[in-house]
Amino acid sequence: SSGINAEWPLRPGGKFGFYEAFKNFYGGLMGEENAFLYRTTMYLAASASAEFFADIFLCPMESVKVRIQTTPGWEQTLRAGAPRIMREEGINGFYKGLAPLWARQIPYTMMKFACFERTVELLYKYVVPKPRSDCGKGEQLMVTFIAGYIAGVFCAIVSHPADSIVSKLNANPGGGVVSAAKELGLAGCWKGLGPRIIMIGTLTALQWFIYDSVKVAFRLPRPPPPEMPESLKRKLAAAQ
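The structure corresponding to this sequence follows.
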């Protein structure tokens, strides 16, 4: 439905914005040297924080979407569904699914951002034959797309068992997480991983590509992969 389709650009849009803000915030708290040394931890913390807050904003939309998909004869649009939940269940009706949403989305987003950042770094270091500053915009966007795809593959693997269990719970609303996992078994939890890797890999690559393209189009800052601060280089040289 048209109401639900609006969620797709909102979710990554909100997340990317929050991620940039938290990355700058945590980087400022840690200081230049620690932000470089512990950058993977910083990426994980910033992405987890971004997802935590993005989900608070998006959970009402998610709750309406789940009702539309799982309740036969229910409302078919966001515009009709949201007032109905408010009328019948109050504000709590929108946030019933917040904890499961966090459990599913936070590990996924941590992988999506941290893996992307480190992959870009490694591609420029070991694969691209020249420094990023010498690469044209098209070449840089291609690196973004490849790194986004690789991050998407890891996202799919990390989140697949949880996603299989959530799908099982939606099919049998009365069951619990443990019973759903037992029923699926180990093989069932990983069933359908191949197609999902292709789907999530492509989707994640496109999200990163679009995000970076918008930055290029609007001449927004696009910082290069992190390099060791001069102060840290001096400390290491002095220690040798």
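Residues 1-9 have pLDDT under 50 and may be disordered.
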